[in-house]
Fold this protein.
Amino acid sequence: MKYRSVLICLVMVGLAMVLGAGAALAEPQKPADAKELTERVQALEKENLVLREDLGKARIDAKSDLAASAKRQAEIIDKLNADLADTQAKMAAERAAQSKRNRNLWIGLGIIAIGVMAR
């Protein structure tokens, strides 16, 4: 425990020395003159304008992509609904044909039964 606290103290002292040396080596910033600041502000304003235009174009592109996607989805949904209606119509026709076959089968069995009983 004693050695651990000594080690922690040494690490803290070393860290303080490194930070102090870094602060001493750092050069103080020179105050910029008004002309440089004005040029920098103008350049940043131009960049901001370009970025706003790009953002506007990106928004328009995103809206058109979204509209095209919604249109494609609507077309797909319409096609699926038409396919569903077609399938349901085919199933209804198949059920009608099946019920007709069943009815004819039972009529035929009834006639045979009547014939067998009449003998």
